[in-house]
Amino acid sequence: MVKKAKKTTIYTQSQIKKLNEKHPLCQPQKKNFRLGNAIRPRIVKSRFVRFPRYVQIQRKKRILLRRLKCPPAIAQFLNPLDRSTTKQVINLFKKYSPETKKEKKDRLKKEAQNEVKEKDKKKKEGPKPSYVKCGLNHVTYLIEQKRAKIVLIAADVDPIETVVFLPTLCKSMGVPYAIVPSKSRLGELVHKKTATCVALTEFKEGANELNNLCKTFNESFKGPGHEWKKPEKGFKAIKREEKLQSILMNNEKKK
Fold first, then answer.
1. How far is residue 198 from each of residues 75, 78, 149, 227, measured CA to CA in Å?
2. Is it true that the peptide bond before 159 is cis, omega within 30 degrees of 0?
3. What confidence tens digit (pLDDT) does each residue in 109-118 have?
4. Which residues face 154 on adjacent strands?
């Protein structure tokens, strides 16, 4: 049984009319937001902000990288080392980090003082220290000469074309390599802001650990060629598919 709507009486109609019609002394006034008057309402200003051009490009690029189909050469840079192994590698590489400008200055000063004191005595030249090698051209040369024992490549280099050839070169020359998520972490090793790639030519400190890492890198990065990266779907596309599936399910139930 459908319930019938109650008929409004004259009394109820008059009550509604009274509620709608406000007293002339209680009429609403427009708020004045000028100095010393009504307080402005809080607005989320991020919706109205025009972001700088470089921020817009960054965001668009990030979306494109997710939505487009990436070839294997670029797809491998989207799957770098995990956090724990990256930390382990960088801690080992820090043992081979070169001296800072201040340390070099102090060392040269000390050497000069010793030379003045011991003029007649012959110089005792110790073994050459092994440091982390940086710079794209220098690292490429070391790989080509098969002098590099291990190479670390940054994943967030822009443009990626500058580094994209290094993994294939390392594979062809039989040099173990790994892709690290951040170029700033590699820059810390050589006392710079950023570094695209770094390499080691000798293992002196922590040699066993570095050799074990080389084996793991050979297994993870030197296997068969990486597959194409499938494009990720956006939020709207996912919702559209869910809606279509729900419609199809409803149609099947009706049948």
1. 21, 19, 11, 26
2. yes
3. 888 888 888 7
4. 180
